[in-house]
């Protein structure tokens, strides 16, 4: 499951540097999460780091992007393989 940032985001800038996959970036109005890069920190940490630091709790699971832990692990492994190759 990829995470998403809701419009409750206050642009506090704390989530972006915490993402080990560089999935978080500044959008037009609020921060956004690239679902192709979000592994919910699987492979890096036991809990999603963006959710751990968010002061307004505006980072839920994206219901349109439901993934199993195994799918998240494969996504993580693919991202790491691209990073090692490039």
**Mean of pLDDT:** 96
The total domain count is: 1
Which bin fits the share of residues in helices?
25-40%
Detail the poorly predicted runs: none
Main β sheet profile: 2 strands, antiparallel
Order of helices and strands: EEHH
CATH first level? Alpha Beta
The CATH architecture comes to 2-Layer Sandwich
How large is the share of residues in beta strands? 5-15%
* Strands, count: 2
Q: What is the overall shape?
A: globular
Strand ordering within the main sheet: 1-2
The end-to-end distance, rounded to whole angstroms, is 26 Å
Helical/strand content category: alpha+beta
What CATH calls the topology is Alpha-Beta Plaits
Number of helices: 2
Describe this protein's structure.
The protein has about 90 residues and is an alpha+beta fold. It has a single domain, classed as Alpha-Beta Plaits, CATH 3.30.70. The chain has 2 helices and 2 strands. The protein has helices spanning about 50-55, 70-85; strands at about 25, 30-35. The protein has a two-stranded antiparallel ribbon with strand order 1-2. β1 and β2 form a beta hairpin. The termini are far apart.
Would you spell out the secondary-structure blueprint of this structure?
Layout: E1 24-26, E2 31-33, H1 49-53, H2 69-85
Antiparallel strand pairs: 1-2
Q: In short, what is this structure?
A:
The chain is α+β, with helices and mostly antiparallel strands and 86 residues long.
């Amino acid at each position: 499951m990829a995470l998403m940032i809701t419009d409750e985001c206050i642009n506090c800038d704390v989530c972006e540097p915490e993402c080990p996959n560089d999935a978080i970036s500044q959008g037009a109005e609020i921060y956004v999460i690239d679902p192709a890069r979000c592994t919910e920190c699987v492979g890096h940490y036991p809990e999603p780091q963006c959710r751990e630091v968010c002061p307004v709790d505006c980072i839920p699971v994206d219901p349109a992007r439901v993934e199993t832990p195994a799918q998240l692990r494969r996504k993580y492994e693919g991202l790491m393989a691209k990073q090692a190759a490039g």
